[in-house]
Amino acid sequence: MRKIGLKEIEDIALGAALLGAGGGGDPYIGKLIAMGAVKDCGEVTLLDPEEIPDDALIVPIAMMGAPTILSEKGVGGEEYKTLHRMVSQFYGKEIYAFMPIEAGGVNSMLPIAACARLGIPMVDADGMGRAFPELQMVTFTIGGIKATPMALTDEKGNCAIFDTITNKWTEELARAVTMSCGGSVSVSLYCMDGITLRKYAVKNIITRSEQLGAAIRTLKNSPNTPEENFFKATEGFKLFKGKISDVLRETKGGFNFGKVHLEGIDHDRGQNAVITFQNENLIAEVNGTVLATTPDLICLVDSETFIPVTTDALKYGKRVIVVGLKCFPLWRSEKGLELVGPRYFGCDVDYHPIEALVKGGTTNV
Fold first, then answer.
1. From residue 58, how far is each of 125, 186, 276, 291 by CA, in Å?
2. Dihedral sign for Cα atoms in the order 343, 349, 353, 354
3. What is the rounded distance in angstroms from the CA atom of residue 10 to the CA atom of residue 6?
4. Phi then psi for 58, rounded to 5 degrees?
5. 80 vs 53, 106, 171, 361, CA distance in Å?
6. Which CATH superfamily is domain 222-358 in?
7. What is the pLDDT at residue 68?
8. Cis ω for the linkage preceding 295 (within 30 of 0)
């Protein structure tokens, strides 16, 4: 048990944006939402999963929809109260704690804001260890846990509770409502007890995000180069360094779809790379050769500051480094790849671990 305050939020937002693999929303917006709530209501208590009582009601809370739209619509404080009321009434017991459903610049921040405004703790865990675009893409689905009852509300006060036959149906129906509500909503789903949480959640993701954020913030405080420090701290793989030469992006069905083209610079001069994304980065190709695929993380960071660049912030001329990170091990299972492997997204490639594709060690600078 420890407290999350303004300093911690800065680092969590930065590190979670990296783990968001291009998705999960704008970390600046997410940070403002969380900081505003903590300034108004006080620090948030962060609980280790091992501290949760077996019968406690733990509820993930998140934003659903296209990150680009969220940056325009924003999130108020009433959505948290509405979701808390709906879920508590459904189960006939008070929610013990909120938790994030994924890592990302917004979806790691919303639970902090919600917990601050409602005066309840947050759990140091999530259901992905990164960000994915669809609701069923969580470790809880692999464990056979139902997404519903799922509560949904928008900023206008419209709300609903879903009870679906599969988690994929939850995604389909909730996505349709999300579009009717303007492209982004707030949701709570995969409500669970402490036993289930400890069995299937990705533990200590908030702490990992904070550590990564602190490492990025202090990269220059070392005799080594910032690049060496970055790859040592993240245990990542350097896939490409280049300048964005073109961005093809469209918002469709509550997702940001597209490709970003890169022209190589420095040691990669004369080469080219293409990153395919659906909210999150899915495939990284260099000179036509695949170097990383989902569910491993493909992240773009500023070539000078190493601050993560989300898919909705990609701009012509920006210089970036393409970074690969290993995913949570459960995603590499057969069930995991059925949910989030490259073929699920319509990509005509099979998954191979990033460390095999780049044929390097845990760092490749």
1. 11, 17, 34, 38
2. negative
3. 6
4. -110, 130
5. 23, 14, 20, 43
6. CV3147-like (2.40.390.10)
7. 64
8. yes
Give tens-digit pLDDT for 27-82: 888 899 999 999 999 999 999 999 999 999 999 999 887 666 666 666 667 889 99
Say what angle helices 205-217 and 6-19 make with each other, to 10 degrees. 100
Distances (CA, A) of 87 to 83, 150, 152, 270, 319: 6, 8, 10, 55, 45
Q: Where are the domains of the chain?
A: 2-205, 222-358
Backbone φ/ψ region at 206: left (φ over 0), alpha (ψ -120 to 50), beta:
alpha
- pLDDT, residue 363, reads 37
Buried (b) or exposed (e) across 305-339, using 16+ Cβ within 10 A? ebebbbbbbbeeebebbbbbbbbbebbeeeebbeb
Unique residue bearing structure tokens 């920006």? 318
In DSSP notation, 120-164 reads --EESEESSSS--SSTT-SHHHHTT----SEEEE-TTS-EEEE--
The full length of the chain comes to: 365
DSSP-derived secondary structure letter, 106: T
Q: Which parts of the chain sit beneath pLDDT 70?
A: 66-76, 254, 360-365
CB proximity list for 338: less than 8 A, separation 6 or greater: 344
Does CATH place domain 2-205 in 3.40.50.300?
no
